[in-house]
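User: I'm writing a tutorial on reading structure tokens. Could you give me a worked example: one chain, its sequence, then its tokens, then a sentence or two explaining what the tokens reveal?
Assistant: Sure. Here is the example chain.
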Amino acid sequence: MARSCWSAVSAEIFGLLVTSRPLPVTYYVVVSFSRDDAGNVVPLEPVEAPNAEAAKRRAWCAAEKHAGAVAFSRTGDPGTGEFQDAEIIATFGEVDVDVLAV
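And here are its predicted structure tokens:
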């Protein structure tokens, strides 16, 4: 029994879809920094931003209220938890970028 051209193509496409890897996701994040009682710079809760420019603006505004802030992005697969190293977009004031190495 001969297969139609369409069924052969759809089977090929379906096979590609099933075996393809998910697209990576990029998160844009802002972390503000404050000083603790001992005077050390400590990170506050991270805040997600919709894009790089928004992250940069939010970090700039946060640094006006706190010791400093950093905007960065991380790209990876949330399903597996595998992410590339953080890419710093901007820093303002006093920050500890070592906290990004998580």
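What the tokens reveal: The chain has a mean pLDDT of 86. The first strand starts at residue 25 and ends at 35.
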